[in-house]
Structures are given as structure tokens and as C-alpha cells.
């Protein structure tokens, strides 16, 4: 908004007015700038964290910072350089890597910010969510909905690292953060092959158990989405002659609530994208922010005109209204989480595309 300065014949009276406004905690709109902008002006910046460095630092933390009963998580939070030291990856999303060593347990707690885990590598850890044990393996998506008890166990001989995403900055902005530590876990290190949530809701499209509750939760009742199912769905798009994937070299799936097709969380959208070599994705920018975890493959991500080489384990922050496109050097699998459901619910979702990524210029 442009500054509009009013001149009064009596400058002292105007000065007195401004003084009285300040004393009463009021500000004159005609003196304010930057409230309404032509396009979004996010404070967060496009940024990439290297997977190699994240793994090395997680292992060092594992050696030096034990996880003990009554403690918290061994987590390295992504701190976007544009957010003034806040431990947030974007204005609305928390991102982190969590490291759990052999024989360790991260104790139970619950909080109102919703969380999810995407397993970058390894297997053998399991997460207990409201008493339901969920096995964790590479490529799996694990949900920890708002205010559910959850704890992590590693009964194996190898450490595991996974990607955490929470809507913590958004919930904090709404002054709705609650946290409660749990009692010491009474669970053993033996987990079932298939969790209760998978047994009830993991039967596949169109296969739902009878006797559904009349009031469904706001989140997906299926708490584990296995990589084998995701991989099969992506691969199937390239062999389906009616799919655009064969022409574009890009297939993707959205993780959904199997009971209604909505997003898995009311505040977060999760997708898996696969790009084939020889195809360059059209550039796009959207309102709302997202985090990207490179699962498999190699290539480049172009953020506001700057190219970054990416390999497995890399984590990428894409703030609102940032141009982004991808170039695959080999089949590239990317997990993404965004705040899209919130933007859509508020009528604030907007998208702009560029057919030729080379024409993309940095956002003004």
C-alpha cells in the first residue's frame, strides 16, 4: 500500500494526534506501507539441506545425545535462513530429520500440531499411535494426527533416520499449541505384522469395512501408507495408455483418506512424484509453502531461477509463490508435503505456470 501523507495547517496538532494514537496503541493506516502487496512476499527463502550432511550430523547427535525415558526426540529441525533463527522450514511447516539408534525408544507424548513421518532409508523401527503399532520402512508414510499419543521404538541393530513434518508454525500462529508428556511405555518391542489401521482401511480402493462411524475424524484413519503400494501406483501410470504420464514423464499420487478421498490431514497435503529422465517439468508457482524430500534418484530442482543438484536424503523448502521445476538425471522420486488444504479451505489457493522453464525469472 502506497504511503499517503496528510498535511495539516497546524503541524503541532498533527504531531499531537500521532502521539495520542501511539499512546492508545493505534496506528494510522495512511502512514503504513507493505500491508497489501501485489504478490506474496514470504520471509522464508527457497533452500536445500543436503542429505549427506543431515545423515552425518544425525549420526553425531546419536553418539553424543542419548534418548532416555522421560526425555524428548533426537531431532534436527530445519531452520530456514529467512525466518530470523526460528526453527521452522517455512512460515507454516516444521521440517526435521529424526535419528533413532539401535535399542532406543523415543518416549510417548502428544500435541495438537499434527505430524507425519516419511522414512528416508532403513526399516525396523515402529511407531505406536494411540496404541496401534505401525512398522516403518523406507518409502512409508506414517501419520500422527493431532492429539494422538505416539512413541518410537527401534528393537533392531541398525539406526534409522526419517523425515518429520508438522503444522507447528501454523498451529502456533493460531495460539492453539498444547503438549502433554506420556507415561513410560508399557509396550514390548514386538510389533504386529499389520497394524489395526491397516487391517481395517488398507484393503485398497473401494474396499472399506462395514459399520463406519457416523462422525469420521478430520484425519485419515489409515495411519501407514506402504511404499510398495505407492510405487505400484506410480509405475502403473506410465503403463496406462490413457494416462498423461507416458507423454509428460511425470506421474504422481496424492495420499488420501480412504473413506472420503480427502487429504490425510486437514492442514497438510502429501504427494509422491516420479519424474523420468528426458522430460523437463513445466515451471509452476503456488500460494502456500511446501517441503520436498528426495527419496530416490538424482537430478536438479530449479527454485526462482537457481538450480540445485539433488540426491537422496536432500530436503527442500519451497516458500509461497516461488517458481519451481525439476529435471531428472535418473528416475526421480520426490515426497512432498504442503499446506494446500488450508489455502483451499480459505479460498486463497492460486497457481501460475510457465510452459518454458527457461523463461522463469526470480519472483519480484
Structure description:
It is a single chain. By secondary structure, the protein is of the alpha+beta class. It is built from 7 helices and 22 strands. It has helices at residues 11-23, 51-64, 168-173, 196-201, 227-239, 245-248, 340-345; strands at 47-49, 75-77, 94-100, 105-111, 115-121, 123-129, 132-137, 141-144, 150-153, 160-166, 179-181, 224-225, 250-254, 269-275, 283-286, 290-296, 299-303, 306-310, 315-318, 324-328, 332-338, 351-354. The strands form 5 sheets. It has a 6-stranded antiparallel sheet with strand order 1-19-16-21-14-13. The longest helix has 14 residues, at 51-64. The chain is globular and about 80 Å long. The two termini are 16 Å apart. The model has no long low-confidence stretch (mean pLDDT 90).
Radius of gyration using CA atoms only: 23 Å
Order of helices and strands: HEHEEEEEEEEEHEHEHHEEEEEEEEEHE
Number of helices: 7
Cα shape: globular
Mean pLDDT over the residues: 90
Straight-line distance between termini: 16 Å
- Please outline the major beta sheet: 6 strands, antiparallel
The strand count comes to 22
Structural class given helices, strands, pairing? Answer: alpha+beta
The share of residues in extended strands comes to 25-35%
The stretches of 5 or more residues where confidence is low (pLDDT under 50) are none
Oligomer: single chain
Q: Strand order within the widest sheet?
A: 1-19-16-21-14-13
The helix content, as a percent range, equals 10-25%
Amino acid at each position: 500500500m502506497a504511503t499517503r501523507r496528510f498535511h495539516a495547517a497546524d503541524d503541532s496538532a498533527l504531531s499531537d494526534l500521532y502521539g495520542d494514537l501511539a499512546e492508545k496503541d493505534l496506528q494510522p493506516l495512511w502512514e503504513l506501507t507493505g500491508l497489501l502487496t501485489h504478490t506474496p512476499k514470504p520471509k522464508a527463502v527457497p533452500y536445500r539441506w543436503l542429505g549427506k550432511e543431515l545423515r552425518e550430523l544425525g549420526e553425531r547427535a546419536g553418539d553424543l545425545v542419548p534418548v532416555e525415558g522421560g526425555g524428548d526426540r533426537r531431532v534436527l529441525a530445519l531452520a530456514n535462513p529467512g525466518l530470523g533463527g526460528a526453527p521452522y522450514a517455512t512460515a507454516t511447516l516444521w521440517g526435521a530429520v529424526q535419528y533413532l539408534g539401535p535399542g532406543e525408544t523415543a518416549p510417548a507424548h502428544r500435541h495438537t500440531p499434527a505430524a507425519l513421518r516419511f522414512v528416508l532409508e532403513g526399516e525396523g523401527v515402529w511407531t505406536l499411535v494411540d496404541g496401534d503399532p505401525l512398522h516403518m520402512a523406507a518409502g512409508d508414510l506414517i501419520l500422527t494426527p493431532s492429539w494422538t499419543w505416539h512413541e518410537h521404538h527401534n528393537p533392531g541393530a541398525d539406526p534409522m533416520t526419517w523425515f518429520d513434518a508438522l503444522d507447528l508454525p501454523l498451529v502456533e500462529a493460531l495460539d492453539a499449541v498444547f503438549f502433554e508428556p506420556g507415561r513410560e511405555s508399557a509396550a514390548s518391542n514386538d510389533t504386529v505384522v499389520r497394524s489395526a489401521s491397516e487391517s481395517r482401511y488398507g484393503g485398497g480402493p473401494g474396499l472399506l469395512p462395514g459399520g463406519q462411524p457416523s462422525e469420521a475424524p478430520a484425519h485419515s484413519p489409515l495411519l501407514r501408507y506402504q511404499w510398495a503400494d505407492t510405487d505400484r501406483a506410480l509405475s502403473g501410470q506410465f503403463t496406462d495408455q490413457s494416462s498423461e504420464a507416458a507423454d509428460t514423464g511425470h506421474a504422481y499420487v496424492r495420499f488420501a483418506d480412504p473413506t472420503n478421498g480427502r487429504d490425510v490431514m486437514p492442514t497438510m497435503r502429501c504427494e509422491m512424484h516420479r519424474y523420468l529422465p528426458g522430460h523437463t517439468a513445466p515451471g509452476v508457482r503456488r500460494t502456500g509453502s511446501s517441503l520436498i524430500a528426495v527419496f530416490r534418484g538424482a537430478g536438479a530442482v530449479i527454485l526462482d531461477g537457481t538450480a540445485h543438484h539433488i540426491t537422496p536424503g536432500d530436503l527442500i523448502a519451497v516458500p509461497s509463490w516461488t517458481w519451481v521445476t525439476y529435471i531428472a538425471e535418473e528416475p526421480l522420486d520426490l515426497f512432498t508435503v504442503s499446506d494446500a488444504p488450508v489455502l483451499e479451505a480459505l479460498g486463497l489457493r492460486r497457481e501460475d505456470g510457465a510452459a518454458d522453464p527457461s523463461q522463469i525469472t526470480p519472483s519480484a
